[in-house]
Amino acid sequence: MDVKNQIEQLRNELNQHNYNYYVLDNPIISDYEFDQKLKELQLLENQHPEFFDSNSPTVRVGGTITKNFNTITHEFRMYSLDNSYSKEDLEEWEKRIIKLSGSQNLSFTCELKYDGASVDLLYEKGKLTQATTRGDGFQGDEITANVRTIKSVPLVLQNDFPERFHIRGEIILPKKGFEEMNKERIEAGEDPYMNPRNTASGSLKLQDTSEVAKRPLDCLLYALVGSVNIKTQYEGLEKARSWGFKVPKESKLCHSTDEVMDFINYWDVHRHDLPYEIDGVVVKVNDIALQEELGYTSKSPRWAMAYKFKAEQATTTLESISYQVGRTGAITPVANLTPVLLAGTIVKRASLHNADQIEKLDIRVGDTVFVEKGGEIIPKIVGVALDKRPSGSMITTYISHCPECQSELIRNEGEAQHYCPNVEGCPPQITGRIQHYISRKAMDIEGLGGETIELLFRSKLIENYADLYELTVSKLLPLERMASKSAENIIKGIEKSKEVPFERVLFALGIRYVGETVAKKLARHYKTIDNLEKTTLEELMQVDEIGVRIAESVVQFFDNEQNKNIVKRLKSYNLQFSLSEESIANQTEKLKGFTFVVSGVFHLHSRDELKNIIEQNGGKVGSSISSKTSYVIVGDNMGPSKKQKAESLGIPMISEEDFIKMV
Ligand code: AMP
Ligand code: ZN
């Protein structure tokens, strides 16, 4: 078989597997086999750039950067929906439509109202050619490269699709994926995202497509637009599904207003069983000819109506307020409630966010409160029933001292959160740091978990993460419920962590604002911990993408006596405190003094790889073209404005191949 056919066949196969997995939820090969095939394709494509295709399954992993999102004028306006909040309103609307149509037996398509960000996809000759955000309904942003990374969006269609059409849908983050993203953020010491909807819509405007690719986004479709010969909305949904789109099966064709109401009532109760969030139901006149007759108001179609669910509320009593201390010392007030059933789960606690929130609600122990579960996963208190307030209740005064170590709390100018400043002596801060140290993305110490850390701390066996390396099986055995097998595993796991590479050790130290990516940057730049310890604020800020906030935090960390001591001890246990021989061996100074801007799509290396090579060889990576740029490495589809800029500044533009020759 010639290479071209081989590439074609792999692409078809991978598209099909992708469809099985992400649309049908029914994979027929293992993830491993899939990855192998993808790698095979990637290799062939790298060797044969002449067969490049922007809809190859390899684009799903991302790797391009979008600096500015182009504005696109919608070919067909993206309307809003009229909302109804009561069943009476909705029935009114249906009656009106029935009367207008002059027909007694109208049918409606009832769909779930997916809570995400709307998107318009354009398909030409069966291939995705453009994706646009809704924007103001007239114009939106082009986000094609980002949308191509969403696995359930078909890049190539199946069966008998129209030549050219638009399809609309909602980009969402399923609940599970959202919770996993938040778990990782919390592990990394970052604030969790508030809700799936905002996170989904924020993801669409990320500049780095590989970042988008990492997010578990999904795309649910609900409307065909343009020349697509369909008679009814319901038929449209079925057709779209047959072309390979993910169209939820919950939609229902209803032949009476009673049926519509049943659909709404059912989903009002069962929405929590869905893998994604919905905020209501959309009822649409099924007949397309009638839709056209009914037309639009200045903002929405007359043939459709959204019914918005009420955020579910429950009434309960505030029993007490407790205060949690995080790894960074931040204090979070938590409401302890009389347990109450809300949205299918028993709620006992709700976040109160901070002192301002408590003051705003004027919430007091003994109050009857309203709890709500909106888009947010954690329930929140939205109000107090003042008429039910018991007489003699006391105004809540925020704590002034840490509940764990009694230090006086501080609150920085302009910040909402109170902090416990006792970084070194406050127990939850101590255990929090050790828990971060052992976590999966940091040292990933097998056999050790968060609870064991607390047990070890309470038993006075450890006070910081360096102490882990002094543990022995015989020290562990006397602990409650500690079997000799688990003790051995813990010691083995700790021993093995001495092989964890430098960049992860750096991340594990838990320096504020030094997440995974920053740790990598610093490791690559400084190469050893000794260099990093000696650095200055000014030097740090010279490092690509290191701002003043991170720089200050790093300097402060290494200025601290206790930290100095811990790092010294870690060194004595032979942890990896310099880049590996291998990565250093690949480093040269060949590109020293040169700044490169990488622009476009490449065949031999991904953008990240190119940047890596530049940095490995002592060069600098610039983010935009300026007079300081030495070379622009040009790939396919470089934006015309960039090209103009490089030309006007007289900056040489070189190909990927030219660049590889340089090194
Ligand atoms: P609103 O933002 O409240 O005006 O509601 C309109 C939005 O609902 C549309 O822009 C869509 O993004 C979204 N939506 C979610 N599910 C559907 C659906 N099944 N049909 C139409 N629109 C939907
Ligand atoms: Zn404290």
User: Proportion of β residues?
Assistant: 15-25%
What is the radius of gyration?
29 Å
What is the multimeric organization of the chains shown? single chain
Class of the largest domain, according to the CATH hierarchy? Alpha Beta
Organism: Capnocytophaga canis
Enzyme class: ligase
Keywords: DNA damage, DNA repair, DNA replication, Ligase, Magnesium, Manganese, Metal-binding, NAD, Zinc
Family: Belongs to the NAD-dependent DNA ligase family. LigA subfamily.
Provide keyphrases for this structure.
663 residues; alpha+beta; Helix Hairpins; D-amino Acid Aminotransferase, Chain A, domain 1; OB fold (Dihydrolipoamide Acetyltransferase, E2P); five-stranded mixed beta sheet; five-stranded antiparallel beta sheet; 20 strands; globular; binds adenosine monophosphate; binds zinc ion
Explain this structure.
With 663 residues, the protein is an alpha+beta fold. The chain has six domains: 3-61, Orthogonal Bundle (Helix Hairpins); 82-258 and 271-301, DNA ligase/mRNA capping enzyme (D-amino Acid Aminotransferase, Chain A, domain 1), CATH 3.30.470; 313-411, Nucleic acid-binding proteins (OB fold (Dihydrolipoamide Acetyltransferase, E2P)); 427-498, 5' to 3' exonuclease, C-terminal subdomain (DNA polymerase, domain 1); 502-584, DNA polymerase, domain 1, CATH 1.10.150; 595-662, BRCT domain (Rossmann fold, 3-Layer(aba) Sandwich), CATH 3.40.50. It is built from 25 helices and 20 strands. The strands form five sheets. A five-stranded mixed beta sheet has the order 2-11-10-3-9. Strands 14-13-12-15-16 form a five-stranded antiparallel beta sheet, with no helix packed on it. A four-stranded antiparallel beta sheet has the order 5-4-7-8. Strand 13 (331-342) and strand 14 form a beta hairpin. Helix 1 packs antiparallel against helix 2 (31-47) and helix 16 (502-508) packs across helix 17. The longest helix is centred in the first third of the chain and has 20 residues, at 3-22. The chain is globular and about 85 Å long. The model has no long low-confidence stretch (mean pLDDT 90). The structure holds adenosine monophosphate and zinc ion.
